[in-house]
């Protein structure tokens, strides 16, 4: 069942504004919002990604903003504790940044691809 997320992770106002702009620019009535996923993990670290979401899954949580919904499934939500998503200007230009405020270098877990979920 789709449920609203409130404090599981943080997302900055500039990141929300950028995501809302990307969804609007796509101009596709099928897009429900943006999905956050994990594309890898283990000893090399978790890699986060985002894609457009055209389906609300039963195991999704959602952060609702005025112009965009941010979806993450239950399994990958476990990796989001302490994550702050920002949109910032970096050495390679502006981009989304996933900052882990609770980084633990000693952990070594496993997590599947966007379609495979987390374990």
Describe the protein's architecture and organization.
The chain is an alpha/beta fold and 119 residues long. It has a single domain (3-100), classed as Hypothetical Protein Aq_1857, Chain: A. Helices cover 15% and strands 38% of the residues. It has 2 helices and 8 strands. The protein has helices at 13-26, 74-77, and strands at residues 3-4, 10-11, 33-40, 47-53, 60-64, 69-73, 83-90, 93-100. β3 and β4 form a beta hairpin. The longest helix is centred in the first third of the chain and has 14 residues, at 13-26.
Walk me through the topology.
Elements: E1 3-4, E2 10-11, H1 13-26, E3 33-40, E4 47-53, E5 60-64, E6 69-73, H2 74-77, E7 83-90, E8 93-100
Parallel strand pairs: 1-5, 2-7, 3-6
Antiparallel strand pairs: 3-4, 5-6, 7-8
List keywords for this structure.
Hypothetical Protein Aq_1857, Chain: A, 2 helices, 15% helix, 5-stranded mixed sheet, 119 residues, single chain, globular, disordered C terminus, 3-stranded mixed sheet, alpha/beta
Summarize the structure.
The chain has 119 residues and is of the alpha/beta class. 15% of the residues lie in helices and 38% in strands.
Q: Roughly how much helix do the residues carry, as a percent range? A: 10-25%
> CATH homologous superfamily - what is it?
HesB-like domain
Anisotropy-based shape: globular
State the major sheet: 5 strands, mixed
Strand arrangement in the largest pleated sheet? 1-5-6-3-4
Mean pLDDT: 81
CATH hierarchy, class: Mainly Beta
Our count of helices gives: 2
What name does the CATH topology carry? Answer: Hypothetical Protein Aq_1857, Chain: A
Which architecture name does CATH use? Sandwich
Order of helices and strands: EEHEEEEHEE
Kindly provide the radius of gyration, computed on alpha-carbon positions and rounded to a whole number of angstroms. 14 Å
Ranges with pLDDT <50 over ≥5 residues? 105-119
Task: Quickly give the structural class.
Answer: alpha/beta
Tally of extended strands? 8
Distance between the termini: 20 Å
Question: What amount of the residues lies in strands?
Answer: 35-45%
